[in-house]
Structure formats: C-alpha cells, structure tokens
Amino acid sequence: MRVLHFFKTSFPDSMGGTEQVINEIAKGSCKLGIKAEVLYLSSKPLPKTIEIEGYFAHRVKLTAQIASTGFSIAAFSRFSELAKNADVIHYHFPWPFMDFVHFATRIKKATLVTYHSDIIRQKYLLQLYRPLKRKFLSSVDHIVATSPNYLSTSEVLKAYPDKVSVIPIGLDKESYPKATEARLKYWHPKFGAKFFLFVGVLRYYKGLHILLEAIRGTDIVVVIVGSGPIEKELKKQASGFGKQNVHFLGHLSNEDKVALLTLCYGVVFPSHLRSEAFGVSLLEGAMYGRPMISSEIGTGTSFVNISGETGLVVPPNAPAELRQALQYLLDNPKLAAEMGRRAEERYHQFFTGDKMAKAYVDLYEQLASEK
C-alpha cells in the first residue's frame, strides 16, 4: 500500500513538532509494509527527492510565504502526479494552501487528516479561510486528533463527531542516539545536578517569557535548547536578572539534547496558548523518565503530563504558580523521581512510535478498503 503525506515543511529541512510526527509516522509505517512518501515545499528544492529511513521525501519550490502559509505553483502538478500512485492521501492540518491543492487536483483517493492544531493567531485571515476549511474537513474521509483532550476542547472538531478518532503522537526511542559518556561529562559541570530543561522552537506561544518571570530573583536554573523568532527578546528579558541561572544554548545536535534530557532534574514546558496542541518535546521528557511541569491549556500537554502523577500542571500565564511548582519539585526529590518513573511508564503505555504507526496502518487499510 502507498501513502502520500502532504504538508508545508518536512525533515530534513525543518525540525518542528509536526515535522517530527510526520517523520515518525512515515518511517514507522514503512516497517509495517507501507510505501510512504512525503511531499512538501522548500526554498531549496534540490535534490527533488531524498530517501529518509525507508521513505521518500519530495520537494517542490516554495513560491511565496504569507501569514505562515507556504504557496507553490509547482505543488499542483507534483501532488497530482504522486497522488495517482497512492492508495491513501494523508494530509496534515492546518495549512490552507493544502486545501486548495486538494480541490484543484480533484482527489478521488482515500483521504485522512491529522488535525495537529486549531488556527489561533491569524484570527482575521481565519474569517476568510473558514468556508474553505469547513469544505475541506467535510470532504475528507477521516480526521485524527492527537489527544482526547484536544478533541474535547476543539470547537472545530466537535462539528465532525462521526469521522474523528484519536491516535496519540508517539516517539521511537530507539531512533534517538545514546547519551555518550563524553557528552555527559561535557554538560554535567556546566549546570549542576538540579536544572530544568526546555527544548523547542522559541515562539510566542511557548510561554518562555512567563518562565523567565517565574525564576527571576531565584536560584532555579533553567536551560533553554532551541532558537526561534523571539530569541532576542527573551535574552533581553533574562539579561536584567543579575544572576546566571538562565542558559540559552541555541539549536543542538540530538546527541547533546539526549545528554541534557538524561542529566536534567525535570522538564518545564510553559506553553500558555492552544497553539501548543501536544508538545512533542514534553513527551521526550516522559520518554527519558523526567518529571514534567506544564500549563493547563486544554490540549494534549495535559494528556502527556498528568498532574500529581507524572508531574505538575499549573494555570497558564501564572508566573507565581509556575515558580511554586519548580520549587516544589526541587524540595521533594523523592517525589520528583517517582513522577519521572511514572512518566516513563506512561510513555511506554501510550506514546511509543510503534503504537502510533500500527494505529495509522490499521486506519490506512480500513480507509483504502472502504474507498
């Protein structure tokens, strides 16, 4: 069976959460006999096709970028060409241009959408897009939400109760590099034994300004891995602290990220808006047995992190409560270790890459047979 994934960006050009999920689904389904392909837009579309861990990724030239939406003239013909040989088209929402391509190419194959997130920020453009969005979601055969939490709180998904199911995001720990002794020895002296780790793109909805406010005037050590559009303003905010308890490391290799996940006391994930639909890097913390702190925003973050069991969940945009949670874990190391153990157990129970891939393959076969 052939499955074509379609999204605006993908590995290896981009390393965001959605791209990581697509990569996990594609490579995991290949192990189960699926011939997976991914089509995406790129500012550097050569080579046109590359092989990644058993699946093929196809690039087409990015023509323009408007309000975080990529457009490509070449995508119409390339998508139509690849779709002819596919049994199932797997879309990844949101991406308004994808809807145009879907209707323009008159797809007659089995179709499903992984619904990664509501559209939160572009409220005025959403008014223009809403009719097309409704038509697109009504036209596809099936919609997948990534957590029961998001399904129950999304007004958009509530309109399609008969075609929505939940497949949690999963990660394949075996695909991550091992924490080498050399990298552990390199990082351990820099931050001590009790630092909290954040990993992710530095975007407006990640709540890092709230985290910085929470630790201002304290000795709580936070290490921030990643770069992004608000990096400068975050560094400016931290520069007035008078203490060196915030460390911005920028983008790191997977080897270094794994070393820091192994060494950290806990993972902090202060995203405060629904744009954070799941939190893949939060799940990485669970995978490495770290206690977690996150905010209650009605999304998958509170499906990964169960308050009082795998970590602590605080109100969004609440620096004082976040500070208390950080300090509580520091003051209770046995409890923190037990929460980390439970987090890892929950990862194995619900969030492995194998479980996610198997669920999607079962759905592919069901949709293809029904079509």
Describe this entry's structure for a reader:
- The strands form three sheets. Strands 3-4-2-1-7-8-9-10 form an eight-stranded mixed beta sheet, with helices on both faces. A six-stranded parallel beta sheet has the order 13-12-11-14-15-16, with helices on both faces. Strands 5-6 form a two-stranded antiparallel ribbon.
- The chain is 42% helix and 20% strand.
- Strand 1, helix 1 (17-30) and strand 2 form a beta-alpha-beta unit.
- The chain contains 14 helices and 16 strands.
- The chain starts with a strand and ends with a helix.
- Helix 1 (17-30) packs across helix 14.
- The chain folds into two domains: 2-170 and 352-370, Glycogen Phosphorylase B (Rossmann fold), CATH 3.40.50.2000; 173-350, Glycogen Phosphorylase B (Rossmann fold), CATH 3.40.50.
- The model has no long low-confidence stretch (mean pLDDT 95).
- With 371 residues, the protein is of the alpha/beta class.
